Fold each of these.
Amino acid sequence: MMRFAIIGAAVGLTGALLGIGSAAAPDTLPVVTRNAVTLGEPAPNFQLPDSKDHLMTLSDLHGKVVLLNFWATWCGPCRVEMPAMEQLYRMFSRKDFEILAVSIDAQGVAVTRPFQREYHLTFPILHDPDYRVGLMYGARSVPMTFLVDRQGVVRHQIFGARDWGASDAQQLVQMLMKY
């Protein structure tokens, strides 16, 4: 029992010396928070390089439905989802629909280009190696997808992989094209 009292006193003294538990801690660093998009609000604009180092800007796609997907080559569910995304991409006209697949791979084109070739992906792959845009959107995991309507408003947020070749996914995109 005496041992616990000594340990408790030592912890309390250490805490007091370090300022732990005190009411004011002026030298405390602020916590970094993630932003998050709100459904029904405008999608935050961004500009990222594609595989050919051309900058793409979300606002340039105003008037199209955009499927914005955050992913990585090392992500198993992302690998499963990509062929169905390609199927969806080929189903709709470029004047009405676009996919922006935002890779968070730190190695950039060195890993995404072989991946794009292996899976025969024709939609744009953008690079966000420092996860700046992912954090701006509040994407806490990959894959995470946002559907943006023709007016640039976020209408849907999908956590995890989805079968984009399924009829319900196709209907979701078609519904957004009506507005």
Amino acid sequence: MHGKTKMKIRIAFLIPTLEKGGAERVLITLTRHLDTSRFEVYIFCLKKSGELLAYAEPSITICNLNCPRSYLAFCRIRKHIKQYKLHILVSWLGNLNAILSFFIPFLPTSTVYMCRESNIPSIFNNQYRFPSVFNFLYRFMGRYQRIICQTKAMATDLVKNFQVKEEKIYVIGNPVKISENIQLLPEKDRLFVQPGDKVLLFVGRFSQEKGLDRLLRLIKVIKDGYKFFVVGYGPFEKTLKATIQEHKLDDRIRIVTDCDDPSAYYAKADCIVMTSYVEGMPNVLLEAFSWGCPAVVYKTMGGVQELITKETGIYISPGSNLDIDDLMAVIVSVCNDTETFKRAGIIQWVRQHHGMDVIVTKYMETFEFEWQRKKRNARGAA
């Protein structure tokens, strides 16, 4: 007699769009690696748009809720939960998490509701037009059966400032793929770097929250023998270019705006520099570490310090009195200390803590555990 076929867990991930953001990239990466013999996977987009749609796993159903405003999407979310008979719904972004938490009592009770927190709410909520609204909504986060945080700092913030029970929270970092393929810079950038030069790197949006004021001060003190690639896009692009021209730094600093995959720059860099004011779990650092590139992180609040160890780089805390000249000195020391910051050691660290297999397994085990717990509780109540 043949055994019964085990039912797949029907799981959907709720996200506003699939534009090129950190949370969106992690979701695409995770869903491409989930075991399809165990999970039937859906992505619910409030608006089905974004460049990352092209990278989604073809077998995954991507549903368009066609409701860009998250606070108006409740009825359509409820309809799709029922239509697809979901076992698990995972909200994937901070503001959406907070809004959905308020409505959980009005959603089907047979579904497990989970979320992934991507920032430190007590800090990040201040960026909204009405911070008090989101601080209020975060009081309902305890309605989720499980909250996945990327860092311990996020978990601590939810417990301390929003009264979420610690046992509801599970910390899972972001996954990163370790590539062994040799990556070469574009020819024009290879010619920009001379033999013996040290290569510095910034990757991120050219915006205020990424510390572009700090970056502008830093590029003014770049030393001879150092080349600095600034990779990204954003509203400060013209300001960056004007500063470089004003200080005649074209021979030391190169702005790269047409780059979908910075792997070649990570592979070439001797040090990646992060100047953000606040970060949750920056994928940029994990990607850099996957190529063995050490980091210097300057006065960034959030969970980023959990990624910086004696092997991976140097973290300058927000309370430090080090100025930009001191920052440059630290960068120089990291670039030249190849005994402490060994590329092979950095790669091994990130593989052990954030390797694709490690993180995907944690997610799948969490999904399966929560669904089995839901079923046990339902049987006990029957």
